[in-house]
Amino acid sequence: MDAASGAAVAALAISPGDHVLDVCAAPGAKLCMMAEFLGDSGSLTAVDISRPRLAACRTMLRKYDLGRRTRLYLGDGTSFSLLPLTGTSKLSPANVCDDQCHNEEPTEVTGNSDRLCKGGFQKDARAEITSLYGEWRSGRTRQEKRAAKRAKYLGIPEQISWDDRAPELFFYGVDSGVVGMKVADVAQTCSDSQNTSLRGYDKVLVDAECTHDGSLKHITKYEQWGWETFERRFLNEDRIASITSLQLRLLSNGFRLLNPGGTLVYSTCSFTKDQNEGVVGRFLATHNNAELQEVELARQWPCSPGGLPHTLRFDPVSSNTSGLFMAKLTKLGCGPSNKSEVGGC
């Protein structure tokens, strides 16, 4: 991972016990870094709209054994509303059994291919068991495999509109809070409750989709493909307008789910002001409860000031890294109008 990308995670100052949200998680290097900072308490929730890229995140988490407290969701970061699981599970991992426990046939668990043992539960509670999550295991159900095969045959792209679809729970660790929870409880959103003190996330990373014109990895590719291709795909006027609109919506939604007093870091690997200072400036103009914060660690970093107070820029010449823009924001007590935000702010 590039050092500048790691700086975006470091700026969050994640501590054990934090509830952390990664709005654009793929391909997963920053996600793994956040999981390592989190340690043995708190939770990490990540969302991405691309199934193959989210699968890469899952592979990295499992490879480095960093996914125990993590939930991965396939969904749209501009509308994602699921809250962190802060309560205790109704069924501890110790109660989740393999196929041999109690020598009884297992019961399918809703939402994945895991199983729970029937033995040891009261008869009137057995109907409820079928809606509880067991430990995550790799593999998809027959229905999921058939749906994927049909989608591939019909040429349906993996990255689709999620306007009318709930996020799909793609992976969850044994200590993520999911195991033993009811499906409805895991899927609770900030719009499901009238409780204005509902707990959101302590730290949010919005490493937004961008034109990648500051990424050394992408620049190397376009040296081979041709700069005309790069300009046509990423730097035309319509593309810039579309992507800055997406970035603003990602930033706004991440902030909506942030706890008062919490920290959000917005970053891109683009050099353009429209995608960086422009997006942050437009956001601040409509959110009086948002405030830019100094990144104290940056005093030791080879970066330069951005075009807004406390924002930072990395570049290949002065920083010896890929290009990166970073803005650190905090949510103040309560804003003037947006009652849909966590905590009523």
Query: What would you report as the Rg, rounded to the nearest angstrom?
Result: 21 Å
Number of strands: 12
Question: What amount of the residues lies in strands?
Answer: 15-25%
Structural class: alpha/beta
Shape designation: globular
Text of the CATH class of one domain:
Alpha Beta
How many helical elements?
10
Spans with pLDDT under 50 lasting ≥5 residues? 88-130
User: Helix-strand pattern, N to C?
Assistant: HEHEHEEEHHEHEHHHEHEEEE
- Stated plainly, the CATH topology of one domain is called Rossmann fold
Mean pLDDT: 78
User: What share of residues is helical?
Assistant: 25-40%
- What is the CATH-assigned architecture of one domain? 3-Layer(aba) Sandwich
> What is the CATH H-level superfamily of one domain?
Vaccinia Virus protein VP39
- Please give the largest β-sheet: 10 strands, mixed
> Alpha-carbon distance between the termini?
35 Å
GO molecular function: RNA binding; RNA methyltransferase activity
Protein name: SAM-dependent MTase RsmB/NOP-type domain-containing protein
Pfam families: Methyltr_RsmB-F (PF01189)
Keywords: Methyltransferase, RNA-binding, S-adenosyl-L-methionine, Transferase
